[in-house]
């Protein structure tokens, strides 16, 4: 329950609704936005929120979702239900597009149930019947026109009409050429009047050509005549056209009868598209406002971390400003938050942010707050914001407020969220303050939760001494006299009335008189609040600085621990490797000494042989010393003519064609360049080819993404248009595209004929056809490539 009825307007939810409509792809999605409700059922709300969150994941991290042809087919289904009715070609075409979107969507979620369980739940029990689409496509072609072979009778009629039209045109051309030779015809060509093909004849020669005059020019000098020779033939064509129309209606009626039994299933498909469009729009809007899914609780409570007002966030994005985040906790121990502070300090924005985010969440939308925020489900939202005085109802501002307070006290309970702006204002503070205090006491006894804003000192004192109510204030920089728009829980705030008045420039005499009139006790309270505010600001700044230093210290400790772990790990490994290597050296040395002693014994201390054996031992020791000595840095092999090289700190490669002292002449493609030898290092042909393939792949990707498969040559001369089309076709073939669009306009059809005759010479061109009438007709040529 929402009270009053205009809560959506008061909190800004109506604007959110309009922005959400802009994200919808269809009219039915926008209608669903208009029907959004305040949901109090926990299970239903949880499911809707999870669906939106899953769709956000799709939009951000999954393959592109089918987002075309979200067509409202509800009116077509109602039309199908009526016995004897039939859908037109355009109706069936719209139905085909919608069905294709449905089946593409179903296929998209195939094998994704584990990843998107709540979205896949939309398809539970839905029958997938592609037979409907197949039946329609047998009759309706991809352009939305009935196929010529939809029936044997239609095929015969089409053939007869074509034959008759060709014969009529042939005879008419003959008569027209004869009239031109005789000088009877006017300037111009064959044209159509009253749906009949006619020839222009000068009025003074109209008796010389037998036929029926359909029209004349504005001057009366030219008449448009249908020769009698083709009159009967044209009548035959007209009769055949009527017969063709009757046959088409017969085919469409038969197809409609075949589709009629599927009406309930078509309604289910329509409902699916509507829901998907609505959920997709909520997810897309959630991305725009940096929204996330908070932790949903069954019991009413609010814990918001880094929450931001969505409308303020969108507005600041355009200006580049930052929104100060809101942190607020409303729970059983602190049920009512009483926010005080200076005017224009952000009290109302704070309260509206809480109300708007709760309303958005309970409408199934993501909210701009950290995902570890916690929001419960409220059954009622009671809101008092703004001036609701009514001339019709004879209500003053204060009377309107009191009427709402009466309803609040009567209706509020544990599951209610109350939002009241400028609590107690509108009448004499001497009486308004106590009444507001009494209302707040009753609301607190009913254990409601809410946010109230006020300037009244008695309410701040009451909140300070009452369990369940907590003071909060909007921080204010009283040095620079500017609001900080940050909520501080636990302490009331000063209105800074005198400080702001002094900054504005109110005369000192007025300020002194005002201070005398407010009384010593009130002045002491306000001064105490200002001092508390100043101390609170200092403590807050110290806290921020402490947190910053603590964070930096933690980072340094973590970095130090990682370095220590790395050092310990590598030290143990190096020691272990060194021990193994030393054991191997010792083993080899012992073996060598033993062999030497054995050889000396065998030679019986022969001086020459002993000398030779000792020399061999020395050589082995030198080899071992060299082998286990520290390895110096490898010097680069000298670069020679014919080597493939690469520039240091660059991907540029080339082949050395000449070396002159410290310089090398490189062949880089077709260019020759002189480069210092110390700027080069050797590479391999295989690596060169790898880089070339990578660069070519990048080029292909760049070309594909920048290439537009559509060219507009309207207004160009024939030779210029053909030259542009030839370049356009060559690039398309290189890209491996299958279809192109050439926009040439209608006019007299000269440019269209020139282009099509030219394209027919290309072996790579498979088919040429007109665009769909709704998208340009014969003013655009669709080119299908082999």
UniProtKB/TrEMBL annotation:
Which terms does the UniProt entry file under GO BP?
mismatch repair; negative regulation of DNA recombination; rescue of stalled ribosome
Its keywords, alphabetically, are:
ATP-binding, Coiled coil, DNA-binding, Endonuclease, Hydrolase, Nuclease, Nucleotide-binding, RNA-binding, rRNA-binding
Q: Which PROSITE patterns match?
A: SMR (PS50828)
Smr domain span: 711-786
Pfam families in the cross-refs = MutS_V (PF00488), Smr (PF01713)
Task: Give the residues annotated as coiled coil.
Answer: 529-620
State the source organism's domain of life. Answer: Bacteria
UniProt-annotated binding residues for ATP: 341-348
- SUPFAM superfamilies according to UniProt: DNA repair protein MutS, domain III, P-loop containing nucleoside triphosphate hydrolases, SMR domain-like
EC number(s) recorded for this UniProt protein: 3.1.-.-, 3.6.4.-
Q: Mind listing the GO molecular function terms for this protein?
A: ATP binding; ATP hydrolysis activity; ATP-dependent DNA damage sensor activity; endonuclease activity; mismatched DNA binding; ribosomal large subunit binding; rRNA binding
- Report the PANTHER family cross-referenced here: OS10G0509000 PROTEIN, OS10G0509000 PROTEIN-RELATED
Oligomeric form and interacting partners: Homodimer. Binds to stalled ribosomes, contacting rRNA.
**Function noted in UniProt:** Acts as a ribosome collision sensor, splitting the ribosome into its 2 subunits. Detects stalled/collided 70S ribosomes which it binds and splits by an ATP-hydrolysis driven conformational change. Acts upstream of the ribosome quality control system (RQC), a ribosome-associated complex that mediates the extraction of incompletely synthesized nascent chains from stalled ribosomes and their subsequent degradation. Probably generates substrates for RQC.
Q: Which family does it belong to?
A: Belongs to the DNA mismatch repair MutS family. MutS2 subfamily.
Question: What is this protein's record name?
Answer: Endonuclease MutS2
Q: Which organism is it from?
A: Solitalea koreensis
Record gene name: mutS2
């Amino acid at each position: 329950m929402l009270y009053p009825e205009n809560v959506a307007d008061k909190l800004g939810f109506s604007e959110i609704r309009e922005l959400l409509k802009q994200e919808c792809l269809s009219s039915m999605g926008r209608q669903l936005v208009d029907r959004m409700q305040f949901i109090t059922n926990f299970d239903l709300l949880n499911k809707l929120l999870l669906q939106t969150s899953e769709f956000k994941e799709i939009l951000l991290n999954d393959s592109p979702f089918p987002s075309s042809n979200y067509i409202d087919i509800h009116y077509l289904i109602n039309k199908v239900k009526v016995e004897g009715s039939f859908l037109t070609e355009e109706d069936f075409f719209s139905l085909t597009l919608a069905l294709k979107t449905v089946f593409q969507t179903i296929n998209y979620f195939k094998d994704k149930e584990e990843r998107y369980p709540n979205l896949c739940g939309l398809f539970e029990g839905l029958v997938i019947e592609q037979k409907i689409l197949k039946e329609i496509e047998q009759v309706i072609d991809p352009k939305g026109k009935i196929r010529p072979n939809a029936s044997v009778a239609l095929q015969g009629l089409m053939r007869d009409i074509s034959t008759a039209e060709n014969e009529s045109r042939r005879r008419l051309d003959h008569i027209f050429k004869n009239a031109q030779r005789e000088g009877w015809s006017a300037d111009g060509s064959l044209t159509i009047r009253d749906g009949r093909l006619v020839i222009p004849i000068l009025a003074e020669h109209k008796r010389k050509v037998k036929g029926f005059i359909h029209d004349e020019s504005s001057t009366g000098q030219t008449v448009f005549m249908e020769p009698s020779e083709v009159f009967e033939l044209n009548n035959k064509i007209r009769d055949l056209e009527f017969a063709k129309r009757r046959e088409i209606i017969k085919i469409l009626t038969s197809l409609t009868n075949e589709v009629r039994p599927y009406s309930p299933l078509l309604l289910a498909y329509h409902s699916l598209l509507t829901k998907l469009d609505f959920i997709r729009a909520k997810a897309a809007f959630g991305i725009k406002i940096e929204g996330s899914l908070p932790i949903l609780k069954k019991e009413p409570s609010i814990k918001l971390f880094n929450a931001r007002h969505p409308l303020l966030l969108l507005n600041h994005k355009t200006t580049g400003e930052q929104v100060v985040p809101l942190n607020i906790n409303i729970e059983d121990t602190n049920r009512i938050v009483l926010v005080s502070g200076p005017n224009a300090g952000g009290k109302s924005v704070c309260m509206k942010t809480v109300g708007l985010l709760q309303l958005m969440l309970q409408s199934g939308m993501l909210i701009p707050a950290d995902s570890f925020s916690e929001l419960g489900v409220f059954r009622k939202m009671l809101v008092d914001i703004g001036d609701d005085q009514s001339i019709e109802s004879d209500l003053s501002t204060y009377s309107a407020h009191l009427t709402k307070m009466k309803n609040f006290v009567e209706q509020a309970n544990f599951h209610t969220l109350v939002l009241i702006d400028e609590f107690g204002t509108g009448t004499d503070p001497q009486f308004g303050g106590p009444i507001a205090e009494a209302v707040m006491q009753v609301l607190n006894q009913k254990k409601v939760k809410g946010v109230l804003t006020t300037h009244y000192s008695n309410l701040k004192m009451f909140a300070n001494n009452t369990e369940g109510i907590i003071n909060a204030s909007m921080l204010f920089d009283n040095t620079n006299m500017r609001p900080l728009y940050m909520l501080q829980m636990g302490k009331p705030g000063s209105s800074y009335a005198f400080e702001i008045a002094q900054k504005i420039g109110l005369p000192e005499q007025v300020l002194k008189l005002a201070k005398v009139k407010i009384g010593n006790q009130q002045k002491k309270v306000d001064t105490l609040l200002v001092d508390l505010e100043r101390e609170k600001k200092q403590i807050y700044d110290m806290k921020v600085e402490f947190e910053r230093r603590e964070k930096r210290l933690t980072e340094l400790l973590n970095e130090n621990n990682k370095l220590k772990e790395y050092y310990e790990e590598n030290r143990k490994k190096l020691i272990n490797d060194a021990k193994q290597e030393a054991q191997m050296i010792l083993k080899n040395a012992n073996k060598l000494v033993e062999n030497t002693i054995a050889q000396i014994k065998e030679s019986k201390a022969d001086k020459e042989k002993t000398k030779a054996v000792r020399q061999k031992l020395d050589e082995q020791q030198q080899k071992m010393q060299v082998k286990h000595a520290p390895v110096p840095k490898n010097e680069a092999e000298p670069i020679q003519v014919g080597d493939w090289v690469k520039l240091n700190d660059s991907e540029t490669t080339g082949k050395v064609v000449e070396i002159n002292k410290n310089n090398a002449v490189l062949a880089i493609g077709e260019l020759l360049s002189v480069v210092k030898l110390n700027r080069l290092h050797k590479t391999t042909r295989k690596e060169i080819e790898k880089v070339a393939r990578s660069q070519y792949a990048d080029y292909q990707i760049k070309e594909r993404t920048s290439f537009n498969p559509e060219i507009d040559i309207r207004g160009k001369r024939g030779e210029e248009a053909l030259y542009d089309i030839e370049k356009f076709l060559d690039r398309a073939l290189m890209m491996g595209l299958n279809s192109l669009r050439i926009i040439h306009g209608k006019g007299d059809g000269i440019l269209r004929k020139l282009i099509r005759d030219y394209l027919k010479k290309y072996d790579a061109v498979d088919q040429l056809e007109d665009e769909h009438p709704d998208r340009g007709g014969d003013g655009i040529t669709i080119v299908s490539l082999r």
